[in-house]
Amino acid sequence: MATNTESSPERRSNGEFYTHVTDFHNKDGPSFHASSTRIPQLALRLPVANDAAALLRIFTDRRNVQYDKSCDGLDTSEAIDALINQWRTFGEPLERANVVVVINGETVGTGGLGWIGKRKSDGKMIGDAGILLDSEFRGKGFAYEALRIVIDHGFRVLGMDEIHIACVDANTAMKGLMSSKLRFEAVPIQDKQFGNEWIWRITRDQWYQSPHSI
Question: How does pLDDT run across 46-59, given as a tens digit for each residue?
Answer without folding.
Answer: 999 999 999 999 99
